[in-house]
Acyl-CoA synthetase
Amino acid sequence: MPPPAWRDHDTFAARLEAWARAEPQRIALIDDDVPITVSSLRDDATRLAGGLASLGVKPGQRVALWLPNGADWVVSFLACARIGALVLAVNTRFRARELADVLGRGGADWLIYWPDFKDIRFDAILDDVPLHILQRLRGVFMAGTQALPAASRQLSGSAAIASGGNGPHEAALSDVQREGRLAGIPAYGLRALMQHGPAAPAAAPNAPAICFTTSGTTSLPKFVVHDQRTLLRHGDAVARRFGHDATACILGTAPFCGVFGFAALAGGLAPGVPVVCQAVFEARRAADAVSRHRVTHAYLNNEALLRMLDAAPDHDYASVRLFGFATFAPALDTLPARAAVHGIALTGLYGSSELIALVAAQPLDDAARRFLPGGRLIYPEARVRVRDPGTGRVLPPGESGEIEIRSPSQMLGYLDDTHSSAQALTDDGYFRTGDLGYAVNDRHFVFQARLGDTLRLSGFLVNPAEIEAFLASLPGIHACQVVGADRDGKTVAFAFVLLEPDTEPDPQGWRDACRQAMAGFKVPAGFHVLQSFPTVESANSVKIQKGRLRELANELLQADRPAP
């Protein structure tokens, strides 16, 4: 049976409008157990687009979206897509240093955020962002607050803040004075803007829609841009490959700010399948949502899935058709057996910021590879090959090298970085993944490891050079190396430090500084002072033995564990 005609549209605004006309009472989202129809979603998105446009948000401008999963995130994204503004997706676990990087290098014109989500003082985090970066913003929009002035009390300095109530029957925007560090920058209540008249859609299918951050190959993340047509096409491909039909329901608990969570969201929105939004992953709540909303599909990392099954071993998973997982914690090898106890179909996944997540999945009928990372590409026209990174020779199936993929889901490029965009692709259009693996055939592959030293921490790709650079900037630290280590089946960061002369170790001070500057999952689980790093001489240079450091980190963490 062919898909309905409304799915032919290749902008979010046009597809949402056509979907709302065809199935106005269809459930699009379930946010905190509250169902939201597609007509309500369309109305909120078009009105918010009108409100944003009335305040000066224009096509091509950049809107940093710093919100947890939920209706406000989805509505804000759809509103920006309608206008043609580019969303800079910001992780809610980011702190001042990381936020400043996204706002600054990402060239943000506007910021949407939730001042006090889950008792996290995002205002206080903003307060630590350098003033010259904040002053570049044209305005900020606040979600989730009932009283805007109260939400701005933690800011210091002087600002004129325009306030709007967030309730559906509250008054229109009015100017008030409030002390704030957002000097001269107006701030508005997001909900009040949803009372505005709708804006006409202005975006073309090839308009940049969202920008994801990735660790890249230096200490600074790259910003990966995807356009509207590509995102919708990928959502359609995900739906076809994984069976998102009219009776499906998707669990949306992976953060929408990353490609893993966004691919699941797009796999619901594009074909018109409801998505159950969860602002933060809590294992028991996720299991409850599966039972309560008859969830059919979920896409999580293996650690999260195992935690969910452990938290609710007696739950009803009868509605589940497929749980796809990415292997972010390789030491957890009990997941397949645990899923089998519940009769849950399970398969390994693959993706990247540049190709979008869920671009490949292992076939369910391939018993030998079904639970391995990698898979068969979901696009019939997509291709994979493996190249020897030393000789440049394309390798036959079964031989390990760098994985290269050509797919319709490929990025537009890296934001404001044409050189890196060109370097990321081969002359014939394959993306250089930087991953080690082997091909099964020209559409099927197995991922083995990162070619470099990039870490997966709490499901997020992190370049250790970012943590190393920060630690090396602290007083008394001469040099630093950060590696991944295993703690209770979870990959954590571990830092090895060389001190300046006459300096005493200060692990607690280093840890506190990291917690202030970066997301909690990046804070090293341990620090160890060395006299020198272990090295080995190659033909061209002296290289630090990261493998030896990883072994030592695991030994040190094991020694710190209390006796059973």
User: Anything to note?
Assistant: The domain at 38-152+170-203 is CATH 3.40.50.980 (Rossmann fold).
